[in-house]
Design goal:
By secondary structure, the protein is an alpha+beta fold. The chain has a domain at about 10-85: Double Stranded RNA Binding Domain, CATH 3.30.160. About 30% of the residues lie in helices and about 30% in strands. The longest helix has 21 residues, at about 40-60.
Length: about 110
């Protein structure tokens, strides 16, 4: 079965003087990465997010990941702004048959 992941997540990149690298973070998933340049740090966090979500799917832990994601982005609970419109979509199916699990920020309530 084919799986496609679509996500829109806020990330940040900052220079770390102690480590002498750019640190990148996706707060909604609590994932960090690092690299020598800003551009590489952005690629690294994108790769880390992709690997994290694929691993969660393959190990049947995606429901927990999506639940923690929703908890982190709800207004007043996590560090993310309620109008940032972050989401994760997991598309599964063969050919044209697709089912979708969408967790948009504005519709999520715990």
């Amino acid at each position: 079965m084919k799986i496609r992941i679509e996500a829109r997540l806020n990330v940040w990149v900052r220079w770390d003087d102690m480590a002498k690298v750019f640190v990148s973070c996706a707060p909604a998933l609590d994932i960090y990465s690092q690299a020598a340049t800003k551009k590489e740090a952005l690629r690294a966090i994108e790769s880390a997010m992709r690997l994290y979500l694929i691993t969660a799917i393959e190990s049947n832990k995606i429901d927990g990941v999506l639940q923690r994601f929703a908890e982190r982005v709800l207004p007043g609970i996590g560090p993310e702004s309620p109008d940032s419109k972050q989401y994760i979509t997991i598309l599964q199916g063969d050919g044209c048959q697709v089912t979708s699990t969408l967790i948009p920020l504005e519709l999520t309530r715990g």
